[in-house]
Specification:
728 residues; mainly beta; six-stranded antiparallel beta sheet; elongated
Length: 728
């Protein structure tokens, strides 16, 4: 490990030597500590859980490093900042590589980040990789732009830049990552270096910085392992073999070179699957060299091949079938070419030209064949599909109410789909059956498909629940409306075995009470319907037709010759017009009569006069009709012309009087001889005592003018004037 020393103020010698990390692969997702160190100008690197508009989670775990803080949508103007790693010792790494997760949301072309490395403890830094590096197994998502304006402290300004939104105004947009991406690159120039550091270098301008920033997480440093490669060969006959490269999913080869160990002029080839004709029978050493360039070490594979006499192309072909579960089958080999006798290898095990099989699930079988000269065929494979085991299930039905029916529906799985159904004890062959047992019964379904072993069956035992015995009575079966009836149940229907009652009274109304009281208001013959449901869900219904009879009612009515009476015409005649009545009863102001259909009555009082007629039919049902007769007294008005207000109890007040006045229409006004108002009232019972607004001092021997305005009971207004003399 290299060490550096700098003399600083006060002549203190500071060692820049630190213990470098030597354990690989190295992985850091910043969950437990920041681990890497931020620095630089205007740096706003922050470690923690991000909560930006787009960058709102870490790539691994909950924490990462973010330029632009952990929240908001802004990173600093004029930023030239760094996030620097610890020291790494690559002495044992022959093919080092780095990978990490990035999420960037920055102004495109102007603001961005690149990765740099140092082998002199940070005295100098070089850009890792470059824009346009070929994408392969070890280089992905590396730098999306060739030059970023504000990476001013780097001679190579390539890096990551861009944002999700498109260009807006003068702020460049597009080319954002829109998600966490994995960037990786091989580090062949750092192989076996004892002191390596990395830093993420970020630069920004002075405008258009209102974006999330850029985040870094899940850094991994590792040594690239050689790809796992192999090759096989196929004898095509006449000393001819085909070679095939097998193995690694990484196909970015820089060079492929075959060497067949043959003295012929065509001893080598640079294609992936070459064909070579050996010059003569014999044993040859064939080698394959695969070169991956700078990112991985070369791979060299060597195999020995024995080339026999008179070899011909050899092909082994399997013929097979699809089996049902439990069914046995036979695979047959069809061999073309080569020289018999042949050796057969089923799944790598020596056997015959046929193979008996009894798989319980879909299975792949392989066949390779070699002939007497040792020429082997390419492996043939066959997938024998096995139908799943035949299964049958019945929909769960535990019980059924007596007299009802249900459908038994089977669920059949597996087999080849050619199902045959057999039901017991019904001897039915349909997929579903409708059942209506009268006693508890066990049903069995047997299903076959013609080849599956064993057949499938399922049983269902269904209990029959008896219906409750239903009856009800009524407190009254007939009567006049309103007819109110109590419906009664026997005690056996009032226990916990009944969960609901539903009464339909036939008049458009229902009840869910167990013993309801219901009033019938219209004449009719009514069907009463009761449905009860037991706690097991079984229902019973009882209908009693014409059970309740509501008798008809008569229609009471009469005609009157007038609705008002007065002193001049006090007598009014009433004529019975009732319908469906067998008898009537008059009641006029308490006087009753049940004889005449026409009756006359004279009214002499101004009280409310009530005339009521009660009609009765032959069922005894009654109805009544009432009318009010208004008595209107004749209009009269009287007024004295003098009074003596001397408190002797005789003629002390002045007050008009009369009959037939409309309430609220009365006004009395008193004026002196100069026309001044001395008294006024709207109360017909309030008198004038001769004083100014009824004060104690009285006028004497004076004449006063009065005016009365009053309406009769027909609202006709009457105005009277006159004079009154006060005598002392």
């Amino acid at each position: 490990m290299r060490c550096f020393f700098l003399n600083i103020f006060f002549f203190v010698k500071l060692s820049l030597c630190a213990q470098c990390i030597t354990s690989f692969p190295y992985f850091e997702d910043f969950e437990n500590a920041p681990s890497w160190t931020p620095s630089g100008t205007q740096s706003d690197f922050a470690w923690g859980t991000p909560n930006h508009l787009y960058i709102n989670s870490a790539a691994s775990g909950h924490k990462c490093w973010c330029v632009g803080g952990l929240s908001g949508t802004f990173y600093n103007f004029g930023e030239q900042s760094y996030l620097t790693s610890p020291c790494f010792d690559f002495s044992t790494l022959n093919s080092p590589a780095i990978s990490f997760k990035l999420f960037w949301e920055l102004e495109y072309k102007y603001d961005g980040m690149q990765l740099q490395s140092s082998i002199d403890n940070g005295l100098s830094w070089q850009t890792v990789g470059g824009y346009g590096d070929a994408t392969d197994c070890y280089t992905q998502n590396w730098y999306n732009i060739a030059s970023i304006n504000y990476l001013t402290q780097s001679s190579n300004k390539c890096g990551w830049s861009g944002r999700k939104q498109l260009t807006s105004g003068s702020c460049q947009g597009g080319n954002g990552s829109t998600q966490w991406l994995e960037a990786k690159h091989c580090l062949s120039n750092l192989a076996n270096q004892p002191n390596v550091k990395f830093r993420f270098y970020f630069g920004s301008g002075l405008t258009c910085n209102s974006y999330d920033g850029i985040a870094i997480d899940a850094i991994k440093i590792y040594n690239i392992q050689n790809p796992s490669l192999d090759f096989n060969f196929l004898c095509l006959g006449q000393n001819t073999y085909q070679f095939n490269l097998l193995g690694s999913s990484c196909s970015n080869y820089n060079q492929i070179l075959w060497s067949f160990g043959d003295v012929s002029n065509n001893n080598t080839s640079s294609i992936i699957s070459p064909t070579h004709v050996f010059s003569a029978p014999g044993t040859y050493t064939v080698s394959l060299l695969v070169n991956y360039g700078q990112c991985a070490l070369p791979v060299n594979i060597t195999k020995t091949i024995t080339v026999g006499q008179n070899q011909t192309a050899l092909t082994g072909i399997i013929s097979g079938t699809t089996l049902c579960f439990g069914q046995q089958g036979v695979l047959s080999a069809n061999v073309l070419g080569g020289s018999p006798p042949y050796a057969y290898f089923w799944n790598g095990i020596a056997g015959n030209s046929t193979l008996s099989i009894n798989p319980t699930s879909t299975t792949q079988y392989s066949l390779s064949v070699s002939d007497v000269n040792g020429c082997s065929s390419i492996m043939d494979t066959l997938t024998v599909r096995v139908s799943p085991a035949l299964q049958a299930f019945l929909n769960p039905i535990d019980s059924i109410c007596f007299g009802s029916n249900k459908i038994l529906i089977p669920l059949v799985k597996g087999g080849n789909g050619n199902y045959t159904y057999n039901w017991e004890p019904l001897l039915a062959s349909t997929p579903t059956i409708i059942i209506s047992p009268s006693v508890t019964t066990t049903y069995t379904l047997n299903v076959t498909d013609g080849c599956s072993v064993p057949n499938a069956s399922s049983t269902s035992t269904i209990k029959v629940i008896p219906l409750p015995s239903l009856n009800f009575t009524a407190s009254s079966l007939s009567g006049c409306p309103p007819l109110c009836v109590n419906f009664l149940l026997p005690p056996t229907l009032l226990n916990n075995s009944i969960s609901s009652w539903y009464w339909d009274f036939g008049d458009g109304t229902v009840s869910t009470q167990n013993q309801p009281n219901h009033c019938f208001n219209l004449s009719d013959s009514l069907n009463i319907n009761l449905k009860i449901t037991s706690a097991q869900g079984c229902s019973a219904t009882l209908v009693k037709p014409h059970y309740i009879v509501v008798w008809p009612t008569p229609i009471a009515s009469f005609y009157s010759s007038s609705t008002t009476a007065n002193e001049n015409e006090p007598t009014i005649t009433f004529t019975n017009t009732s319908q469906h009545a067998t008898s009537i009863l008059w009641n006029i102001n308490g006087t009753t009569s049940n004889i005449d259909s026409t009756i006359s009555y004279s009214f002499y009082t101004a009280n409310n006069n009530t005339v009521m007629l009660t009609a009765t039919n032959n069922y005894g049902c009654t109805s009544g009709y009432t009318k009010e007769i208004l008595y209107i007294p004749n209009f009269t008005f009287y007024c004295p012309n003098s009074f003596t207000p001397n408190n002797d109890g005789k003629n002390d007040i002045f007050i008009p009087y009369g009959m037939g006045w409309k309430e609220g229409s009365y006004t009395l006004s008193i004026y002196n001889r100069w026309g001044e108002l001395v008294f006024e009232t709207s109360n017909p019972n309030e008198a004038w005592n001769g004083g100014l607004y009824n004060k104690t001092e009285n006028y004497s021997n004076n004449v006063f003018t009065w005016k009365v305005s009053v309406s009769d009971l027909q609202s006709k207004n009457h105005i009277y004037t006159g004079s009154v003399t006060i005598i002392k």
